[in-house]
Amino acid sequence: MQKSGKEEIVLKGINASAGICIGKAYLVDRSGVDVITRYAIAEKRINAEVKRFKSAVQYAKSALRAIIENSSREVQKAVILETQMALLNDKMLYGRTIETIETERVNAEWALKSVVGRIKAAFQEMPDAYMRERVADITHVSDLVMRHLTGVEAPDIARIDKRVILVAHDLSPADTSQINLERVKGFITNLGGKTSHTGIIAQTLEIPAVVGLETATQTIHNDDVIIVDGTDGVVVVHPTEKTLLEYEERQTRFERYKAVITRESHLKTETTDRRHFDVLANIEFPEEVVSAINYGAAGIGLYRTEFQYLGRTVFPSENELFENYRDVVEVMAPRPVIFRTLDINGDKAIHSDLSHDEQNPALGLRAIRYCLKRPDVFKTQLRAILRAAAFGNVRLMFPLISAYFEIQLAKRFLDDAAASLAADGLPYKRDIPVGIMIEVPAAVVMADVLAKEVDFFSIGTNDLIQYGLAIDRGNKQVAHMYQPLDPAVIRMIKHTADVARANRIPVHMCGEMAGRPLHAPLLLGLGLDELSMNPQAIPLVKRMIRSISLAESKKMVKKALSLRTAREVFEVLRDSFGELVANHRRDMQA
Asked: Does residue 571 sit within a domain?
């Protein structure tokens, strides 16, 4: 591939999916939909205008349904597309648009644009980045409807007949699900973040992607030669011969390294002194089980169940939950799947239940507190999980337990759910391990009492660090103080593990701390039995475990527990095991 003769441009975005690809740009044109004119509708034509809107919605449903049915298996069962299908029936979008047509007597295009604008504004005011990014769902489904109303053709990615790199302002899940891996090397977008659907599907398909570039579509033209570095979040436009050669070598090294590390990841995870540890995957979407299996996960250590609830005005039904849960359980069987019950109305929100505002939602009605206050919602989910348990190896854990009575009540609800399933004559399994997440200092202090009520502990370090150190990691003024290696955090983990061992129950970790290779010796030395993390982090952590001795790890922990600062703990880890991390990185560059 030859240099274009134009000046090299380097764009920095968000690394959504690892890998490097080099090729020609293919711009996905979405122009035309936003140019909407308002005009009045005569009273006698209102019903006809409503019918025109309903017809466009039916067209959008048919288009989504066809995409779901024709997509590859990795994306076919994607809850993302199913959720967008549900949005087309949602009163927030569908009902309000019809109401606007009827009350304001305006054309369907204008009514839809007006309603979508108000919904997007409400989403964008939310403090949680995940919820702000759900604006894309509203945009994508309304775009499908709008195109039918205006007669503007949608880009047909499935018909691309050459090897290209997609460049777009944004790509909907419907767009990305049509990607032919023999044609599309990777993609970049102006919009999107780490939790955007675009990035999630790119990871599922395992193609390089950089998102959040802001001006990519203005800077790049069709057939421009570009390099996409999804590992570092960099895009190079009009690369020089020197840059091309450098990235071609890096691409080769990455593919070789990925093949080796992925192959290694399916080996047993034993320390050099023959102690076995299971490494599991954290997932949020059912389609992520593919990555979990590919990267050698021993099971699902954390299935975040909030996704099916977020951004909706109606709670999902028991059958809807059950179908998705069963899919994951059946695919992973006989490996375990640990379901975390609903954790919403903290840093997340559900539009079905925004009857109150909280000044400090992180300390308010969230997780188990919310579920205990909404037994109808809680029981529906518990019934779905128990039904799915009949199809594989299921475990259950309750989040944010801070008091003894909460676990007692939660278990009572679980028994009630089982009894109701028996009365209904539905297949289910009640005899499953039940655990709690250790996420607040109160649970650490009361661990000896709580351990007698459960089958396992799972340490959620993301919240434990936040609550233990009183640090809001989203606050730029204090985010630097959010330190996983703070001695206070290490002592809380040590106490929890000691209590678990004394009560003969396993203790796991599913927070982000578990996914860092340098932390593995510390965590195993502290007494953790299992680690769970993002699927892509599994190979390196497993390699680290196979490179260390548990005896040496325990020896290092004794020293770490005597230290006073996070910096001192890091230095001990670096001095003891840093060379192993460096070797792994050198392997990637070799």
From this structure: no
